[in-house]
Specification:
single chain, mainly alpha, transmembrane helix, DUF1232
């Protein structure tokens, strides 16, 4: 259950720990863009899960 609920968080932690990067951060603007997209996708997933739970609760 833990992995099913927090899989995106676990992947984000692994992504931060690993030294490899999709686009190196030394590239201006685009280096941070891929990191930012991951954060935004993680937050969006949490928000959608929250809305789904609220809808199931009938609130």
């Amino acid at each position: 259950m833990f992995f099913k609920r927090y899989w995106i968080f676990i992947l984000a932690v692994i992504y931060i720990i690993l030294p490899t990067d999709l686009i190196p951060d030394v590239v201006p603007l685009f280096g941070s863009l891929d990191d930012s997209v991951l954060v935004i996708l993680g937050l969006l997933k949490r928000y959608l899960d929250y809305r789904k739970e609220k809808k199931e609760d009938g609130v």
